Amino acid sequence: MTFMIFDLRLPLMTGLVSKKINNLKGLALVPGDKSISHRALMFGALASGETTVTGILEGEDVFRTADALRAMGVSIALLNSKNDVWRIQGMGENPLHTPESVLDLGNSGTSARLLMGLVAGYPISASFTGDDSLRRRPMERVIKPLKQMGAKFEMSVEDRLPLRITGSSSLRPIHYLMPVASAQVKSSILLAGLHANGKTTVVEPQPTRDHTERMLEFFGAKVFSETQSDGSNSVTLEGGQVLTGRNVVVPSDPSSAAFLTVAALITEDSDIVIPNVLMNPLRTGIYDTLIEMGANIVFENASDKHGEPVADIRVKSSVLKGVRVPPKRVPSMIDEFPILSVAAAFADGDTVMTDLSELRVKESDRLAAIAKGLEATGVKAEMGKDSLIVHGSGHSVEGGCTIETGFDHRIAMSFLIMGLSSRSPVAVDDAKTIATSFPDFAALMNRLGAKID
Length: 453
Ligand code: S3P
What we know:
Elements: E1 16-19, E2 25-27, H1 34-46, E3 50-54, H2 60-71, E4 75-80, E5 85-89, E6 103-104, H3 109-120, E7 125-129, H4 132-135, H5 140-149, E8 152-155, E9 163-166, E10 175-177, H6 183-193, E11 199-204, H7 211-218, E12 223-227, E13 233-238, E14 247-249, H8 254-266, E15 271-278, H9 285-292, E16 296-305, E17 308-316, H10 337-346, E18 348-353, H11 366-376, E19 380-383, E20 388-393, E21 399-403, H12 409-419, E22 424-428, H13 441-448, E23 451-452
Parallel strand pairs: 2-15, 3-14, 6-7, 10-11, 21-22
Antiparallel strand pairs: 1-22, 1-23, 3-5, 4-5, 7-9, 8-9, 11-13, 12-13, 15-17, 16-17, 18-20, 19-20
Helix pairs in contact: 1-2, 1-7, 2-3, 3-5, 3-6, 5-6, 8-10, 8-12, 10-11, 10-12
Shikimate-3-phosphate binds near residues 35, 182 and 335.
């Protein structure tokens, strides 16, 4: 006899639909930055003494990092649920523990790749796995440098999770030329480099988000970064530096704020404010591009919080025109091409995006997912091996379809935003994945005036 087992924790209906609206108005606080939230937990775990984190992203990906660290002996607790303060008792000089069970990193590439770098520096073994999406993503990019440093790996499929890593308390420092511009790879090597016997240098072909470097300095370490005349960037760190627990305040995520920004731009008569958004120049390429397209975006109350710049973003409905995105800007908006493509669909003329090969290995093959979604919504676009041209019509798009999200939160949110200004509703087949980075997305959008349910 067979039994049907239903997991009652999961809603039975996982899709969402968004419908045309008149305008978006008001103030909306988006959740904490995902990259900084992961790093605050990891550096807090390594540091001596206590770290508190305020405004952390309470999303699935960050929970996976917290659970993995707990499984390796780190105490992480909610200090004050009202104020969103998390407390981490750092391990300091004490080693991490070998976890008793497999570390399941869910959908989170950042958790998997950075934690491998962290485990590499301890004489412990840990098994890593993830969901269908994460198990399809390349891991050789971190395995190769970590092996050179002395970590050992076992896996049944080259370059993929699941795998088992065994670290070492005497890692070799390396000078590593990264073949791809990836902050995850850079951060993984720097985390391992903290435990190496000497100076580790990572050279990235183009500068990528530097939250690891900034947070290492905030926790008391010395890190040297230097941009070369060819545009590459080298980061050097001496092993054996001791981190000291800090109070981290996480600003709002500019990648999440980009969904609200484009929503206000493409809906008529909209005027919204998104306070306290991270304005790190290595993350704000989407805003530079939208402004070039004619977007009415103003940054107010700029300040510096705990080593990172922040500002409030005010956005009003705008008439957009197509632009060419400079290739060197790609790393600073690597997660924003799905939502830029939505803006481009409403712009007048072509938006040309090149050097997008990294989009093929994100939570989904994002380039293919964007092109397929645009076609389904009646937007003309041309996809190349690593490029996309969106032929914007300058007015509203057709819509009237269901988009396959392929376990990709940013594809789901982007096409739900498109539905707010499409002639017919746009549905996404699976919205569960939105909880990885922006659990409150639909409710927050609806408070501004959206119709997403
Ligand atoms: C991240 C780096 C980027 C980005 C990801 C978060 C990070 O990935 O796409 O969402 O926190 O370091 P890559 O390093 O693979 O470009």
